[in-house]
Amino acid sequence: MSQPTATITINLDALVSNYRALCSMAASGTCAAVVKADAYGLGVVPVARALAAAACREFFVADVNEGVALRAVLPSADFRIHVFEGVDDASAEATMAANLWPVLNSDRQIDCWQRTARRVGRELPCTLHVDTGMNRLGMPAHDALTRAGRADGLHGLALQLLITHLACADDPANPMNAAQLRAFGDVTAAFGNIRTSIANSGGLMMAPEYHGDLPRPGIAMYGGNPQPGQDSPFRTVVTMTARVLQTRQVAAGATVGYGASYCAPGTRTLATLAAGYADGYPRALSNRGWVAISGHRAPVVGRVSMDTTVVDITDLPLAVSAGLDVAELIGTTISLDSVARWADSINYAVLTGLGRRPDRRYSLVAEGAADR
Ligand SMILES: Cc1ncc(COP(=O)(O)O)c(C=O)c1O
């Protein structure tokens, strides 16, 4: 079998170190971990095991299927698994069987979970999401206040946590942040002594009142910069590399790739790399991205195609050999955030778009903590 086209290396030590850094930033000293979408595309099994070994006890996933899959990895009830999309009649049984905590987003979802509790004859744990301006998921604040005021509002439910989600945590100066905090404060006061969860990664970089008792970071753990306006204190987690398949010299006027969108301004030396958009290398990097070979940057020329990308290595101070050299597409020299910016995208989309074809390697955290 020949070598794989591209390799994605996930540094679990860096992931854990970012998680610990986030915990130490949190006012409460602890954080949950958002591991939805297969841990932002990095692989929920090794990621969750590494975080569990680092004493993370609360996890957030998107839906019941992700919750059931995560419960199989972390079977102990010590690990709390919150499901952002909540519960409905179709998912109630599986939610209960896997001991998941639905994040209830509406009267309909609360009623459903109360019916389930009545059926099984015991209180069921849950989290309540209060919408304070995101207008995506969650109960409007006034509906949550109405619930809090009703004697039977949450009857049969063991409410564990109140959450809200900031719309502008990547922009700390945005007045929306303070407005959301005020709206959430009005609701939490009405519910009494219940734990709260406000901050995502960006929120954790803001003042402690934005954290709540249980912040829920995702992107910063995975090495993304949560506030693009500032330098990131987080370590690189994902490295993507591709082998050099072929090099060639072209004369002035030669074009590269589909659509002949690049035209050499003079004699140039080009290298064809074994990674393309099918590997998750964004096509939007055509004629815009940069890679690094032995730490030296080379621009992408022509269109990124399905399996290959061509870069201009003319100005590199070293020889590049097909079959031997490897280019870094994402990593410590070519940051995830730069790739996202060049692609007119965001770090979340680049990570979750990483392809299935590249070989995946995980660094180890501790004996038994990670997939090998
Ligand atoms: C409701 C909610 N909370 C927390 C997070 C984690 O956010 P981040 O990855 O920006 O830290 C997300 C991610 O999209 C989310 O949807």
Account of the 3D structure:
With 372 residues, the chain is of the alpha/beta class. Helices cover 27% and strands 22% of the residues. The protein has helices at residues 12-25, 36-40, 44-53, 64-73, 92-97, 107-120, 141-149, 175-191, 201-204, 336-342, 347-352; strands at residues 6-10, 33-34, 58-61, 80-83, 101-104, 124-131, 139-140, 157-163, 195-197, 238-250, 255-256, 262-263, 268-273, 290-293, 296-299, 309-312, 326-330, 359-362. The strands form three sheets. Strands 1, 10, 13, 14, 15, 16, 17 and 18 form an eight-stranded mixed beta sheet that branches. Strands 2, 3, 4, 5, 6, 7, 8 and 9 form an eight-stranded parallel beta sheet that branches. A two-stranded antiparallel sheet has the order 11-12. Helix 1 (12-25) crosses helix 3 (44-53) and helix 7 packs parallel to helix 8. The longest helix has 17 residues, at 175-191. The model is unreliable at 366-372 (pLDDT under 50). Bound molecules: pyridoxal-5'-phosphate. The site of pyridoxal-5'-phosphate has 12 residues, from helix 9.
Largest sheet: 8 strands, mixed
Name of the CATH class of the largest domain: Alpha Beta
Q: At the third CATH level, what is the topology name of the largest domain?
A: TIM Barrel
Helix run count: 11
Cα(first) to Cα(last) distance is 20 Å
Which range does the strand content fall in?
15-25%
Bin the helical content. 25-40%
